[in-house]
Amino acid sequence: MTITTKAYGVQSEKDNLKPMDIQRREVGDDDVKLDITYCGVCHSDIHTARNEWGGSKYPVVPGHEIIGHVTAVGKNVKNFKIGDVVGVGCLVDSCQECAQCKNNMEQFCEKGATFTYNSADKHLKGKQTFGGYSTSVVVNKEFVLNIPKNLDEAGAAPLLCAGITTWSPLRHWKVKKGDKVGVIGLGGLGHMGVKFANALGAHVVMITTSPSKAADAKKLGAHEVLISKNDAEMAKHKGTFDFILNTIPVGHKMDPYLSLLKVDATMVLVGAVEPLEPFHGGGIISGRKRIAGSLIGGIKETQEMLDFCGKHNIVSDIELIDIKDINTAYDRVVKADVKYRFVIDMASLK
Ligand code: NAP
Ligand code: ZN
After folding, report:
1. Domain shared by 191 and 128, yes or no
2. Over the stretch 186-243, which tens digit does the pLDDT of each residue have?
3. Which atom belonging to ligand 1 lies closest to the Cα atom of 207?
4. Helix, strand, coil proportions of the chain in percent (round to 5)?
């Protein structure tokens, strides 16, 4: 038995998003069902809908920044009750037994994590998972997050992906008070990176291609703004950064950014899940610099991030949209014209 559920998605990589019906599983003993109130729009949604990473299975229903209200729980669910405000991020299942899962890094599950959309569905054989551009979802209790009561629900939605994806590397590389931290790209991820780096006490430099975003970057918590297209300005910051978080969503030239790092400093890529332009080995050999990557974060770390946001009253700066405006929103994200995350008011789909 399945539950017919309203959603928005694409039938092929060339398609615009349109209304469709999808099937959700019935609530099992370990499951939580939520009515989705808000869902953020991540650039990954666009990459997947348009098959830019390859391997998309259609139809695609994107959405992995989900906020909802619990409407049903299975008999083994003790931590959530009907009416609770909860979140679901990029992960909805994993084996829970391998070394990575046991180490709270379900995103790297050795048997393959089940992502919120476009992963093989363990429950509905032969189908793929469908994301949060939808009125409801059924999720295993281990992958449901508590949303602190003081946070605005719509503003909290992007914490479930943009939030954890920037929080996790800042914590893993131990960014601390006084570090000079660069955040490249002022979009959904970048604006959360700025907020978190600021909250952790770093000296934050927004590295952007868009001079028009400079004033906003400062309001979001950047102490300085560096326009990456301006070679003279880039030269002034050469060799001065302790850490750089790179959210550029496409392949790009690495050398200009690597030259900003200090000796022994690290640049972490989170955005470009695709080939990068060739870069010069000398740029990292000289200075013992490091390039690293990072993928979202585990469930425990996501809850820690949400609790930190609750304590420090951190949410995303969003533009709330109706689901019918999603295709225009996609075009604006691709043009780097988002301030700074679109969130869908899911009441507009009911
Ligand atoms: P976004 O909102 O579109 O922001 C990206 C920003 O990067 C743009 O606003 C723009 O900022 C800058 N940019 C765009 N094209 C550029 C280029 N060619 N050169 C230099 N800068 C450029 O995207 P997002 O939702 O933050 O996601 C960013 C990337 O991270 C996407 O590829 C997404 O799929 C990926 N992602 C990865 C993870 C993970 O776990 N690793 C999780 C979520 C998302 P300026 O105008 O300031 O230059
Ligand atoms: Zn995302």
Report:
1. no
2. 999 999 999 999 999 999 999 999 999 999 999 999 999 999 999 999 999 999 999 9
3. 47
4. 30, 30, 45
Domain that holds residue 17: 2-161+317-348
User: Model confidence over 137-189: pLDDT tens digits?
Assistant: 999 999 999 999 999 999 999 999 999 999 999 999 999 999 999 999 999 99
Same domain, 57 and 139: yes
Q: Is 302 domain-assigned?
A: no
Instruction: Quote the ligand 2 centre to 1 CA distance (angstroms).
Output: 30
Q: Does residue 202 sit within a domain? A: yes
* Averaged pLDDT for residues 11-39: 98
Q: How far is the CA of 287 from the centre of ligand 2 (A)?
A: 32
Q: What does pLDDT average to over the chain?
A: 98
- Name residues with Cβ closer than 5 Å to ligand 2, which is an ion: 42, 44, 161
By CB atoms closer than 10 A (0-12, 13-18, 19+), residue 314 is buried
CATH number of the domain to which 271 belongs: 3.40.50.720
